[in-house]
Design goal:
The chain is 23% helix and 26% strand. It starts with a strand and ends in a 9-residue tail after the last strand. Bound molecules: coenzyme A.
Length: 145
């Protein structure tokens, strides 16, 4: 696989690039952020983190300070390290922005559990059955408060 180019997702992606809009509902004004991976002008991956409100929470919602992340790699581009790379960029961006952590949920049996475990995302106590995990940007903090 030739090296993909990676750039920040922008609000314009929702309007101009339907393939990203399908996977993301990014509200930059709310503090949401993400990255897009492209190859030869085609979207092959995206990772994004959104601050959904409690009343419209995602499966991986833990608290209002913690954006919930999602990761998607095009089926043909999987298994080449791109998912881990985007995940690390999201962690680094969260640290840069002073965000206390990131959360997510992943279905049981999905091999992504191993990826998230490797990258420091730990099960949230009491939410194990829903596959909810939390990564603390200050790794001394094990769980959301
Ligand atoms: C999950 C997903 C984002 C991973 O991205 P990817 O680019 O394929 O993964 P990577 O190549 O970076 O691999 C990272 C780790 O995932 C695991 N992994 C990747 N492919 C795997 C496979 N076919 N079987 C088992 N484990 C696998 C390994 O632990 C791997 O680490 P290693 O390379 O050190 O062994 C991607 O497969 C995807 O989009 N899947 C569908 C959507 C989804 O399930 N998203 C996650 C839920 S939020």
């Amino acid at each position: 696989m030739t090296d993909p180019s990676i750039r920040h997702l922008t609000a314009a992606d929702e309007q101009d690039r339907r393939e990203f809009a399908h996977y993301t509902r990014l509200d930059v004004a709310r503090g949401d952020f993400g990255f897009a991976a492209e190859q030869n002008g085609t979207a092959i991956g995206a990772g994004w983190a959104v601050f959904l409100p409690a009343e419209d929470a995602g499966y991986g919602f833990v608290d209002m300070q913690t954006p919930e992340l999602s990761l998607w790699i095009h089926a043909k581009a999987r298994g080449h390290g791109l998912g881990r790379h985007l995940l690390r960029l999201l962690k680094s961006e969260a640290r840069h922005r002073g965000i206390p952590g990131l959360s997510l949920s992943v279905e049981s049996g999905n091999f992504a559990h191993q990826l998230y475990e490797d990258e420091g995302f730990r099960h949230v106590r009491g939410r194990e059955a829903d596959g909810v995990r939390f990564w603390a940007s200050d790794e001394a903090r094990a769980e959301p408060t």
